[in-house]
Write a structure and sequence with these properties.
Layout: H1 9-18, E1 40-48, E2 58-59, E3 64-65, H2 76-90, E4 95-99, H3 108-116, H4 119-122, H5 127-135, E5 139-141, H6 151-160, E6 165-166, E7 170-172, E8 183-188, E9 197-204, H7 209-212, H8 214-217, E10 221-223, H9 226-239, E11 244-249, H10 269-275, E12 281-284, E13 290-297, E14 304-310, E15 316-327, E16 330-342, H11 350-367, E17 370-374, E18 378-379, H12 389-406, E19 416-420, E20 428-429, E21 432-435, H13 436-442, E22 448-455, H14 456-466, E23 496-498, E24 501-505, E25 514-518, E26 531-537, H15 538-541, E27 556-561, H16 562-573, E28 575-576, E29 586-590, E30 593-594
Parallel strand pairs: 1-4, 4-5, 5-6, 9-11, 11-12, 12-14, 17-28, 19-26, 24-29
Antiparallel strand pairs: 1-15, 2-3, 7-10, 8-9, 13-14, 15-16, 17-21, 18-20, 19-23, 22-26, 22-27, 24-25, 29-30
Helix pairs in contact: 2-5, 5-11, 9-10, 12-16
């Protein structure tokens, strides 16, 4: 089923109602000690989310086994081992496996088969299709990052899967019909003498796609409110025989959004549970949090809806267990609970490793290609709170690219500024050989370069908004660099601007922190009506992070990937020397006194 043309209503309903896999065998009826009680059976749901292209327990940026300060492991191969262990433990009893999205983006492995050797050109099976097919999922929900590489690649990946891909609120803009399968109803055998259990699974993707991947979906897809979509489909699923309703949703449970109110809520899972009756449990993702077990009371029925989110990258596996009884010809849930399993407790599944090994090794060879020599080591560890050469490298390449492209146009005489974010706290260009993986580790997203025109007043407002990243620290108060930023603002939503000189006074309230904004190398304040071209990534220009003034018509947009521009610049130059691009232009202060 493709995104380009939505299925007919009859196709959707027939596919959803008829979808079923080989029967799953459930537990024998339980008996109470001493006296009989109603027969019960059990169902287990295993859930993954936000695997982001991780198959092996491998860090492509370090070219080493993955490890972090908490000794987490990652990857679908680790998840597979846990899933197989639980299936074996349950000895064939009813076990469903779902994923809540963000699958085909996030590692050099995923990028390689979207950009370097795209599956749309080669016809090769995507590594995440290979890995997930070994596990034999029951369904996957589309996450927002599934749309990063365009609809043709997404459609091909879906066709390569051996199970359904769901997204009820992704609507074909021309027909008004679902662009993907909204839901499935799976017939689950609960064993001898037990009527078949019909499990409805509804998939909901994130409305933020309309902003974050506007270039790929505008005019083709619209993304409806997740709460309203659940309210539409859950009664339909119940009417068509679903005894138990599960939702696999790519949205967090905070009730907040990273963008403005013009789009439906980004993280509405708790609201769905609260407002939509008829839901038994929700597996969710997107926020990369570990939510082991959360119950939300439905305000209309009083029912307790079970929620769980299994962290990110394959670090955790959600397990939900349901006890079911048959009463008056209907299935009821007598108990439900969730636990979380850690993938650092198991080895990788050899079948998953084998399925992806050749692609994994090809990716390693690619990212270890040397692109240039660095004259000194450059680190991003301080880039959040100090002007650093490694972030200026990004800004220099972006500004240079836009300046050259605008030569001879009506914008050629405007100063070019550039925006960059400290995506990684661990990125390093070593002294000597700089490899593709070093550049990829600095710029970890598949963003493209765009440019817009901003006034001086808009630049100031933009910087003020960015400066909310920092906590307020009075003059003389101790400074802990690990606690200097507001933990609710992610690093990727803090921007520095190159091309103007400015101070951020973190002793002042949010909105009053840009105390000095001047033309470079001068004391001349930037006039409100001054005009600047600003080089910016497509995520930010499309509204990601809800920065003010930046969502406007581009004066430059050649669909060039920023990471590739960085690689190309380094290869052409042969040497990465800070003296070619490092221009210290901003600092943190308190009452005019530098913090560092």
């Amino acid at each position: 089923m493709t995104s380009g043309s939505g299925p007919s209503r009859r196709q959707v309903l027939v596919a959803a109602a008829a979808a079923a896999t080989a029967p799953l065998i459930a537990a024998a009826p339980a008996q109470a000690a001493g006296r009989p009680r109603p027969r019960t059976w059990d169902l287990t749901l295993l859930g993954t989310s936000d695997t982001h292209g991780n198959v092996y327990n491998w860090d492509y940026y370090r070219d080493a086994e993955y490890d972090d300060s908490k000794h987490n492991d990652i990857g679908v191969a680790k998840l597979a081992t846990l899933i197989n262990q639980i299936r074996a433990e349950r000895r064939g009893r009813a076990t469903l496996v779902l994923d809540a999205g963000d699958t085909i983006q996030g590692t050099p492995l995923a990028t390689y088969y979207a950009k370097q050797e795209p599956i749309t050109a080669t016809g090769e099976k995507h590594p995440m299709a290979r890995a997930m097919n070994v596990i034999d999922y029951d369904a996957v929900t589309l996450g927002n990052h599934e749309f990063n590489y365009g609809l043709p690649l997404l459609d091909l990946w879906i066709r390569q899967l051996g199970f359904p891909a769901l997204a009820a609120n992704a609507i074909n803009a021309k027909t008004g019909k679902p662009a993907f399968l909204p839901y499935v109803i799976k017939k689950v055998s609960l064993g001898f003498a037990a009527p078949t259990l019909r499990v409805g699974i509804l998939g909901l993707t994130n409305p933020g796609v309309a902003i974050w991947d506007r270039g790929n979906v505008e005019g083709k897809l619209r993304f409806d409110d997740m709460v309203a979509t659940a309210a539409k489909w859950v009664p339909i699923m119940r009417a068509r025989g679903a005894d138990l309703v599960l939702i696999s949703a790519h949205g967090g449970d905070s009730g907040t959004s990273s963008y403005g109110p013009e789009l439906p809520n980004e993280n509405p899972v708790a609201l769905i549970a609260q407002q939509v009756p008829g839901i038994d449990a929700i597996l969710f993702g997107h926020a990369h949090n570990e939510v082991v077990e959360r119950f939300v009371t439905n305000e209309r029925t009083g029912a307790q809806v079970l929620l769980s989110e299994p962290s990110k990258w394959g670090q955790r596996l959600t397990r939900m267990d349901f006890t079911l009884a048959r009463e008056h010809g209907r299935w009821t849930i007598t108990t439900k609970a969730a636990t979380m399993l850690n993938t650092n407790t198991v080895v990788e599944d050899p079948k998953v490793l084998a399925a992806v090994r050749a692609q994994h090794q090809k990716t390693i060879a690619y990212v270890n290609q040397v692109v240039a020599q660095a004259t000194v080591e450059m680190s991003a560890v301080e880039s959040r709170y100090k002007d650093t050469p490694i972030l200026d490298f990004i800004n220099h390449v972006q500004a240079e690219t836009v300046t050259k492209a605008l030569a001879g146009t009506s914008y050629a005489d405007l100063p070019v500024l550039s925006q960059a974010s400290p995506f990684s706290r661990t990125a390093v260009f070593p002294s000597g050989d700089v490899k593709i993986r070093d550049v990829a580790g600095l710029y970890v997203y598949d963003n493209t370069l765009e440019a817009v025109v901003l006034s001086g007043a808009e630049v100031r407002a933009y910087l003020e908004y960015s400066a909310k990243y920092f906590r307020t620290l009075a003059p003389g108060a101790p400074v802990d660099t690990e606690q200097i930023n507001d933990s609710t603002v992610p690093d990727y939503n803090y921007d520095v601007i190159a091309g103007l000189d400015y101070d951020i006074d973190i002793s002042k309230p949010v909105g009053q922190r840009i105390t000095r904004l001047v033309l470079p190398g001068t004391d001349t304040p930037v006039a409100d009506d001054a005009q600047f071209v600003v080089a910016v990534n497509n995520y930010r220009r499309s509204g990601g992070g809800n920065f003010p003034g930046i969502v406007k018509t581009q004066v430059y947009n050649e669909q060039q990937e920023i990471r590739q521009l960085l690689i190309d610049w380094a290869q052409a130059k042969g040497t990465i020397d800070p003296s070619d691009f490092f221009q210290p232009n901003w600092r943190l202060v308190r009452e005019g006194v530098p913090v560092f």
